[in-house]
Amino acid sequence: MFERQNSRQPSTRSFRRSHQEAFIMIHVSSEGELEQVKPLLELLLTQQKRVELIFTSPSVEKKVERLYFANSELLRLLRLPLLSPFPYLFSWTTAPRVLLVRYDFYPELLLLGQKKKLMLLEATLKNKHSSGLSLHFRKMLYQLFERIVCSTQKDFERFSQIGIETSRMRLASLRLEQIYLRTSEAQQTLRRFPLFDNWPQFARAHENHELVILGNYWEEELPLLRSLCERLPTATVVIVPHLIKADSHWKDHFQGLSLPCQIYSSLEEKSEFSKNQLIVFNVKGILVELYTFFPTAYVGGGFGRSVHSLLEPFVAGASLVCGPKIHRSTEYDQVYELSSTSVLVLNNMHWPLELKLTRPEIKIRSKLVKEVADFLE
Questions:
Q1: Residues 18-22: what's their mean pLDDT?
Q2: What is the pTM of this model?
Q3: DSSP state of 353
């Protein structure tokens, strides 16, 4: 059903049918990759360059369709045709450049890239073995790419160590700039919603140690939350869950904590915030903006599969606390490289008696996205 949409929607009509050529073809697997490449994609569209965007997961469908409707003359979409006849992708795409994001290397895309200029964004070798046959295979694989953009210094060095010439690489994180733009407009964004009418004044009325946020919170992290409430009995604790669930579910979940609980599930409702309580924002889309008001942020997921975005609260100016599952997170490497004293990794679900962390100060390189666009051209 997913691939069938390729033959049913105007957004999938190839530029070839109107005798036009795209500037670049970009592949994203899921929402994470789309967010990472989005600043570059938006710049290219602003420059009136045609883009072919191929995606693999239904999770990004709505977002890429919104992009198409805003740029229907310049953008074409395609669900990666894994079940369609093999030549379909080759006949559909017109771009001389192919850009992959991170590490989802489908054979069809690699083969397509052999006839075009193959490039890689947000490249990483984190947790990749570097010996024996795996090292030989990795060297062969990455030699296929004419341009490689790494987001961390460690990855830049890892690629150098397997023989990738530094002239073919750049060190840049487009995600940093994207988050910075959101945080710089945080107050204007929140001001649009009645829920946050009084939020700035309320947040600023707290001392640093009295205001903590748990972003992308998972239910399995309840013992940590209980420990935090016991060790900071006068604090105001804000929770933004990773998953939206019924208010009744969260009321039951947080029952028994030492702090009273107030749950908000609509951006349009009026709020009456009070200090020394648990405030749950059971809504989507405002976490990055909220981070800008907090001196300390706990980022969820680190006691599960993998920690969620650390760059978002870091760029917002918060010192960070997270669980031990950081092995898959290149964002942890970025944060640590930029300010190692701003992040604390917990090995158990006990909130520290004392946090000795510094708040980060981030400087974003101007014109970074254009630099990357020029390098890829």
A1: 96
A2: 0.85
A3: S
Output the six-digit token pair for 272: 């009456």
Lowest mean pLDDT among 169-178, 231-240, 258-267: 169-178
DSSP string computed for 264-317: E--TTS-----SSSEEEE--SS-HHHHHTT-SEEEETTTTSS----SHHHHHTT
Spatial strand order of the sheet with 319-322 comes to 261-264, 278-281, 236-241, 211-217, 296-299, 319-322, 343-345
Q: How many CB atoms lie within 10 A of CB 210?
A: 15
For 206-232, how does the pLDDT look when each residue is reduced to its tens digit (9 = 90+)?
987 789 999 999 999 999 999 999 999
Nearest of 107, 146, 197, 79 to residue 377 by alpha carbon: 146
| Residue for token pair 């947040």 | 203
Is the Cβ–Cβ distance between 347 and 215 less than 8 Å?
A: no
Is 80 exceeded by the pLDDT of residue 2? Answer: no
Distance CA 258, CA 199 (A): 23
* Element holding 153 (H helix, E strand): helix 153-161
All domains in the chain, ordered by first residue: 3-179+366-376 (3.40.50.11720), 187-345 (3.40.50.2000)
Q: Which residues contact 129 (CB under 8 A, 6 or more apart)?
A: 135
CB 239 within 8 A of CB 217: yes
Q: For helices 330-338 and 153-161, what crossing angle results, to 10°? A: 110
pLDDT of residue 304: 96
Q: How many residues does the chain have?
A: 377
Burial class (CB in 10 A: 0-12, 13-18, 19+), 81: middle
